[in-house]
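Morning run. Coffee first, then this:
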Amino acid sequence: MPRFDPFPGLRFSPSHISSLEDVVCPPYDVISEEQRERLVARSPANIVRLELPRSDDGDDPYVGAAKLLDAWRDGGILHRDREPALYGYRMTFTDEVGSPRSTVGVIGALGLEPPGEGILPHEETTPKARSDRLALLRATRANLSPIWALSPAAGLTELLGSSAHPRPAERVTGDDGVCHELWPITDRHAMDDIAHTVGSEPVLIADGHHRYETALAFQAEERATSGGRPGDHDSVMALVVELADDQLAVGAIHRLLDGLPERFDLPGALARWFDLEPTGPVDAGIGSRMAAAGALAVLTPGGAWLARPRPETVAAATHDLDSSRLDVALAGLPPHRLDFQHGAESCAAAVGAGRAQAAVLLRPAGVDQIAAVARGGVRMPPKTTLFWPKPRTGLVVRELID
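And here it is:
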């Protein structure tokens, strides 16, 4: 069963920043280069400079991030909490149908375990992202953003509700309208109850598979050089949320295709695996049309189609998921490039502007499907699930001191 411990968080000092909104950022994997530039322009202390470092005056970007983190600590921009704590975390937002929602979780140091034991991954990862995150962790020796884990243990949400302070220590509203609140939990009995609840069941990784595998690789390196001595490298910062439908909003991550032969007939090629039916343009109703038809959607400059998987495609897929069914078809296409994109409208814009030859929209996986896949041990294809909202990077940082 997983271990879940408090830690003394590193947080921004209000006396040294203009506002919290100016210094936090989304997780690294949803930040475009244009958005990074806007975040840097908000404040020289925006944490995106650590989360997504860039070369400066020939410096290795990861070494530069470590130097900057040291400078912020030494200069008082970041201060370390006086005592170890768990950190309650709440995201309040309006969902896609206009209903008010909230997700309540707790941030702590989650003890690392091999996949399939106390921690259950559900997605594959890519080597490039793993190497990037490992280089950053080696240089900074800090967990800058939490992985997101789901606990099947009933009662976690109720425990966190009773620990919530009426005036959270940190509150920030993002450009997307999501309100993020964080409060330290230092009462020993409350921390023990929360840790016991989280540790009573294996947790599922919702988001942060690359950071989890990076933490395992870093742990192995540290153990090899220290003779197996235990330390902070044996844990990773994690936001743990109760595995319940009312706590989670799961979206799909779509696919952009490029590099196919010129004038390649993609709808014709996909007809081997899908029954295609013309549909209207991408609008607010595209998701409902896909759900009603039990179909994916294919977008090209020539039009849009609903793509209902054929029985043989369903049988060949490793999971009862659109991403797995599409993988069956992609394996039979000519060589091509595959990119991942959030938002149906963004996919349509990429195709319309010629940045991609085509897009395939997927339906989101359900919470029950994610849990079943994680327990079954066979992971989903990379970038299958989009958990939203995303916790903000910079509200609390965990240092690896040992």
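The chain has a mean pLDDT of 90. Good start to the day.
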